[in-house]
Design brief:
mainly alpha; about 100 residues; DNA-binding; Cro/C1-type_HTH; globular; TransReg_Diox_bact_type; Helix-turn-helix domain; DNA binding
């Protein structure tokens, strides 16, 4: 029963916080960082590379790769290009219109 109360408290707190100035933008940035990191991690794992191996191939440090994969940083386009090149992948950056409401 306590877990249920904690969930509703968390949901209420989240909703209050999302109403604060800049919160939605920050949430979207965090989501983007997480998704980019997950994509790179999945490609790295398919190659059976360690973070250190990817870092060496991309001219980065292992800790920078780890932070990026964890969603802790939003990289610049040149960094994304280096990661994509190291992973023998294409970088596809697009702005897609939203569907009409």
């Amino acid at each position: 029963m306590a877990a249920m109360a904690e969930r509703s408290d968390w949901a209420q707190l989240r909703e209050r916080r999302m109403g604060e100035l800049g919160a939605r933008d920050a949430y979207q940035s965090a989501r983007l960082a997480f998704e980019l990191g997950r994509s790179v991690r999945e490609l790295r794992q398919r190659r059976a590379w360690s973070q250190a191996e990817l870092a060496a191939a991309a001219g980065m440090t292992q800790s920078a790769v780890a932070r990026f994969e964890a969603g802790g940083t939003v990289p610049t386009l040149p960094v994304l290009e280096r990661l994509a090149e190291a992973l023998d992948a294409d970088l596809d950056v697009r702005v897609i219109p939203r569907p009409a409401a």
